[in-house]
Amino acid sequence: MQFSVIFEAQLADPTPQRERETLADCVEQAVAAEAAGFDRIWAVEHHSLLRYAHMSAPDVFLAHVAAKTSRIRLGHGVVCLPFGYGHPIRVAERAAMLDVLSGGRLDLGAGRGATRQEMAMCGVDPASTYEQVEEALRIIGNCWTAEQFQWHGLLDIGPGQVLPRPVQTPHPPLFMACSKAETLRTAADYGVGALVLGFAGAEEISAMRRVYDAALAERTGERFVSAVRNDHFAALCPTIVADDGAEAFRIGARGQRFFAESILHWYGGGPEPSEDTADDDNAAVLKLEREAVVAKLHEANIPVRPSSTGTYNVDHAYGTASRAVEYVGQLARIGVDEVICLIQMGTVPHDAALETIRQWGAHVIPHFRKKDETR
């Protein structure tokens, strides 16, 4: 099992100064993740999503992190691949440059950038995002290995050569964001890894693993987007860990509420997320807040990210390290290949994020490393 940390650069108080501080905090947390023994970090591309995600140029962020680290893999994912966000050849060039400068540490994940806000900002046609993502993946998966590359589909490209060539041969691993059964089956058909995002919890992740396994067993290979197959299944794990388990739960539940309200706002047209950072240490208050968010999410009937919204709960790795070990044990039994730790949520203090990374490195990751070694 592998372990990673994901960054969207969320912040509850989006002033220019706080934005700079948040991005600097993300860098520090990424460097700390390497020291703690994590295998990978992921940086997610979004555009114009105030509070929810200020990571508009993850390749720049990852290049900065690469210069400060030596081992941890760099997940450039997801990259928004509809053509309005970036021409596939430019995505391939920039990703290859990052792979070269990092010494071959790049992983590339694909996404649609499906909010109305993002699509409107970047001139993306909502009706064409799926077919454009598929074509972009095929272009990227093949242009890195061709001496002379040309393409005639939705785009007419070449002939020409993509430079530089990536260090990893034949090319860096490809992934795709998967938030529902349909996209899991698509990822399996494409032969790319699945990044299962959302707050649904272990039961939902187990159901998604079954869908993915069934799709792997049924695929013919006709839709593979490159000559390299990647069947890696990675799942999100919201987590805050501290010696004081109740305090860790309080911080995590509040951060998750902010995250969920951000999803509701940008994907479902709901109100802006609350910036109230007052203490929520009363269990009854937490229960009422949770029920209020659940009601809003269901009322919005959001179709684009059901695993993020369909089952909202706080039954995650919030608490002490032993609670995190218990929860990750559930994911291991499900067959998760990689646990993606979501720590950097909008209201989570920087010191709580660093402490969570430290706790995982001291207690959680070594527990599962030892189990792997004894098999």
Automatic annotation (TrEMBL):
InterPro entries according to UniProt: Bact_Lucif_Oxidored, Luciferase-like_dom, Luciferase-like_sf
The keyword Oxidoreductase appears for this protein: yes
Keyword Oxidoreductase: yes
Pfam families documented for this protein: Bac_luciferase
Protein's UniProt name: LLM class flavin-dependent oxidoreductase
Taxonomy, superkingdom: Bacteria
Keywords: Monooxygenase, Oxidoreductase
Domain Luciferase-like: 1-252
Coiled-coil residues: none
